Amino acid sequence: MLIRRPSDLRPSEITSPELFHGRRRFLQGALAAGAAAAFGLPAVASAGEKLPNVVKSPYRVDEPLTPYDAVPEYNNFYELGTGKDDPQRNAARLKPKPWTVEIAGACEQPGRVGFDDLIAGLALEERVYRHRCVEAWSMVVPWVGVPLGQVLAKYKPLSSAKYVAFTTLMDPQQFPGQRLPVLEWPYREGLRMDEALHPLTILAVGVYGEVLPNQNGAPLRLVVPWKYGFKGIKSIVKIEFVEHEPRTSWNLAAPDEYGFYANVNPAVDHPRWSQKRERRIGDWLKRDTLAFNGYGEQVASLYSGMDLRKSF
Amino acid sequence: MSSVRPTNAAPTGLKPLVFLLCLLPLGLLIWRGFEAGLGANPVETLEHATGDWALRLLLLTLCATPLRQLSGWSWPLRLRRMLGLYTFFYASVHMALYFTLDLELDFYMLGNEVLKRPYLSVGFLAWALLIPLALTSTDRMIRRLGRRWKSLHRSVYVIGVLAVLHYLWLVKADVREPLLYGAILIVLLGWRAWRERRDRKGGRRSQAVRTV
Question: Scanning every residue of chain B, which has its alpha carbon at the shortest distance from the alpha carbon of A83?
Answer without folding.
Answer: B174
